Amino acid sequence: MACAASSVSVVGSSALASGAASPCARAEKRCTASVASRSSSVSLGNGLVFRNSAAALGSRQPNELRNSFAPARASSPRQVPGSCRVVAQLAQKAEYIWMDGQEGSKGIRFNEMRSKTKVIPKPLPAGSTDFPEWSFDGSSTGQAEGNNSDCILKPVFSCPDPIRGDHHVLVLCEVLTPEGKPHRTNTRRLIEDILSEDVLAQETLFGFEQEYTMFGKNGHPYGWPDAGYPAPQGPFYCGVGLEAVYGRPLVEAHLDACVKAGLKISGINAEVMPGQWEFQIGPAGPLETGDHVMIARWLLHRLGEDFGIISTFEPKPMQGDWNGAGAHTNYSTKAMRQDGGMTAIKAAIEKLSKKHKEHIAQYGLGNERRLTGKHETANIDTFKSGVADRGASIRIPLPVSLANKGYLEDRRPAANVDPYVVCRMLIQTTLKD
To answer: Where are the beta strands (DSSP E) in 161-275?
Structure first.
């Protein structure tokens, strides 16, 4: 029996028992199968092992084939004990992810992330963008009318799937119209449109601080009492201990998933309000920042299903003397990072001051409830900057001031802001206008 492709493993159990050089055994040597013992196990070359026993077929252990199906027998004139079995390499699960463009408009319980699974018969490596285009019903996501509802998913980024593991992948997609043009919710494409040679020469870098608040199924912030409130703010920021920290298991699982997915996650911390957390993405370029933030958001929501926790990017999830949730964005250009870069930083801040209203208009829904001039924010109608001032619109970190170079921090974006929009607007205002 000939082995036609490296994706096929062939094992002859009688050959194993006798050690005879049967045709099956010779075929086994020519293929990539690996035989572990007389129980006839087959390595599929991708970390998965098929074990020929009823117990193994029902097993839910990691790295074992979970589908209960009988292996196909090789075609031969006589099916006798010891005849060869052929097991094809497992297909790949690709989770296609996109945004419906409605973040912040669905209330606390719902988000804009959408996804569905496509099975790829011939696996592609993580990092590839050669995954096939797909479509979805845009009338069910608010992205199309029912009489012309098909929207196109165009893969633009992929990474390992840390939840399914093995060779499975997450595939981030842009949304296109049936005519192949960028959909109105496709804010990623707008960044590509402004990445001219002069912008690319500045090697812009971003650091995105994504705050979020956990809620339980009871509609209360996670860890809060069903009636009343926890202790006032103070003990919770970067806190440690049962009374100071709520929801750490999900936070750690999310951090682990982001690392395994290869995202540029640079840190996590508990925030000022109990049940509120932050993760940071970057430093990275504008497209990479947006892509990694969106995958990280999807992972947070997906893992929340397993932990029974809703994570919201609502800018002001709890009224009263509680901090809101933002997405402070650190930004630098090559000129800012060079010696004497403070001059470029101050020039950028001056340009940002003149476009304050335009930025605020696109920095997240409900941001007016957060930007009140209290709880480490500047008033939404006021633009101000300062060194180490967390009540400023634009903050210059103290180490940057001392080094006379580095970056600025835009503290105005709400937690539900579109990261592609923030990156594009900072580039547009400081380098293009």
So the answer is: 169-176, 205-215, 265-270
What is the spatial distance between Cα 318 and Cα 314, in angstroms, rounded to a whole number? 9
DSSP labels, 328-358: -EEEE-HHHHSTTTHHHHHHHHHHHHHTHHH
The C-alpha angle 377, 392, 103, rounded to 5 degrees, equals 50
Rounded Cα–Cα distance for residues 385 and 411 (Å): 10
Average pLDDT (272-282) is: 97
Cα 176 to Cα 19, 81, 170, 195, 429, distances in angstroms: 58, 55, 19, 20, 27
- The dihedral built from the CA positions of residue 26, 28, 29 and 34, taken in this order, carries a sign that is negative
Using a 10 angstrom Cβ sphere, with 0-12 exposed, 13-18 middle and 19 or more buried, the burial of residue 75 is exposed
DSSP 294-328: HHHHHHHHHHHHHHT-EEE--S-SS-SS----B--
Give the separation between CA 202 and CA 287, rounded to whole angstroms: 15
293-312: per-residue pLDDT in tens? 999 999 999 999 999 999 99
Q: How far does the chain reach from its first CA to its final CA, in angstroms? A: 69
Task: Identify the residue whose tokens are 């930025």.
Answer: 359
> What average pLDDT does this structure show over 42-63?
37
Whole-angstrom distance, CA of residue 430 vs CA of residue 332: 10
- Per-residue CA distances from 33 to 8, 67, 95, 143 (Å): 8, 19, 28, 47
For residue 270, which of 297, 303, 236 has the smallest C-alpha distance? 236
Check if the beta carbon of residue 170 is closer than 8 Å to that of residue 272: no
Amino acid at position 236, single letter: F
Residue 2 has pLDDT above 60, yes or no: no
* Cα separations in angstroms, 298 against 243, 320, 360: 28, 29, 25
69-111 pLDDT, tens digit each: 333 333 444 445 555 554 456 899 999 999 999 998 888 889 9
Name which of 418, 197, 122 is nearest 291 in CA terms: 418
Whether residue 132 is predicted with pLDDT greater than 60 in this model: the reply is yes
Question: What percent of the chain shows pLDDT beyond 90?
Answer: 75
Instruction: Say which DSSP state 156 is in.
Output: E
CB 204 within 8 A of CB 194: no
CA distance 226 to 104: 25
Q: Say whether the peptide bond before residue 315 is cis (omega within 30 degrees of 0).
A: no
CA-nearest of 91, 76, 81 to 44 is 91
CA atoms within 13 A on the CB side of 219: 2
